Amino acid sequence: MSELLLGSGNSRVKKVRFAEIPVAFTDVTTVDIDPSGNPDYVHDLNVTPWPFADNSFDEVCAFEVLEHLGQQGDYKAFFAHFYEIWRVLKPGGYLIATVPMWDSMWTWGDPGHTRVITRGSLVFLNQKEYSQVGETAMTDYRSVWKGDFETMALEEKGDTFAFVLRARK
To answer: Given 11, 133, 137, 165, which is the most exposed site by the fewest CB atoms within 10 A?
Structure first.
């Protein structure tokens, strides 16, 4: 199993458990903007495309990193980042992520946080959800979002929102 750990820093710990996902990394590739954590790749994840081939990984893990990418309200960057995750995942691969809860003191308290991701944000990554366009207030982003994720698990606990998405290709 091949895994990509985004924003690895100094940690190599899998922070989310899900029934179909192994507890420990088996073949992890790390990427971070800061070279001091000795990542395999030093790369600013705001710069796309990322330096990985299509369909390279069974899992992409992003623990407390997605809230550092793009800017709130910049839908093009939001979809560009999630597209990169979808692109590098193998068909059926998993995105395993944690971000601060929308109402956590860390959400906007951390000067490096630029975006809030909620369960509502994830709706826009699932192509089937666009069936509600015209019926609800959902904006139609299908002209910019070409990937597709299925939500497998969501957990809101304390200051943390954890989620697992599966790439549909």
So the answer is: 137
